Amino acid sequence: MARIPTYKALLKFFNERSADVKIHFAHLPKLINEKLPYEIAIAYVFLKIEQAQNRALYGGVVKIHRGNADFTKRIMNFQHLTRDGFKAIYKNVFGHAISEATSDKLKEAEKSRDKVIHGKSVTDNDLREAIADVLEYAELFNSEVNSVAGFKPFADMRGFKGKADSLDIRTTKWLMRGLGFGIKA
Asked: Least packed by Cβ within 10 Å: which of 73, 94, 148, 162?
C-alpha cells in the first residue's frame, strides 16, 4: 500500500511537518484542498525548493564567508543553477557535500517532477509521494544547513547573519567567483 494513498493523507503528512516548513510551503494545503491537479502542486513545491536552495547559498556566502549581503543577493538573482551546479557550489560554500540521505530524498521526487514538466504521464499516487518526499527533503535540508551554518533556508532568515562585519563588494566579488558563482572579473 502507498505511503500517501489520498489527498487527505497528504494533508495530514503536511500538517505533521515543522512550523518552518509549513510556512515555507504555505499555499500547498490550498492547492491540495481545491483538488487541483497534482501537477500544479509539484510545480509549486519545486519552485519553493529552488527558492530555499538559493537562500541556502546566499546565507552561506553572507554568514560563513561574510560576503556583502546586497552584492551577494544581486549575484544570486543572476546565477543560473542546475542540479549538479547547485551541489557543486553548495559543497564549496559549506565545505562538504549535501548528505546522501538528504540528496536521495529529493532525487526520487525529481523523477516525477521531470516527467510532469516534460509532458509525460505520472500517476496521482506517484505525485503525492513526490510531494511528501519534497516535504521530507525540506526538513532534512533545514537540519543539515542549520547544523553547519546556524540558519534554516526553509524558514524566516531575518537576523540570520548577526552583527559580523561584511567584506567589501570587490572582495565579495572575488570570493563568490572562487566559490564557483558565474561572475565576470
From this structure: 162
Alpha-carbon distance of 115 to 56, in angstroms, equals 26
| CA 121, chain centre distance (Å) | 25
Q: Assign residue 146 a region (left: φ > 0; alpha: ψ between -120 and 50; beta: otherwise).
A: alpha
Distance CA 175, CA 21 (A): 31
pLDDT tens-digit series, residues 139-175: 999 999 999 999 999 998 877 777 778 888 999 999 9
Q: Residue 114 corresponds to which cell in the numbers above?
A: 521531470
Taking a C-beta distance cutoff of 8 angstroms, is the pair 181, 79 a contact?
A: yes
For 57, the grid coordinates are 547559498
Q: Would you call 168 helix, strand, or coil by DSSP? A: coil
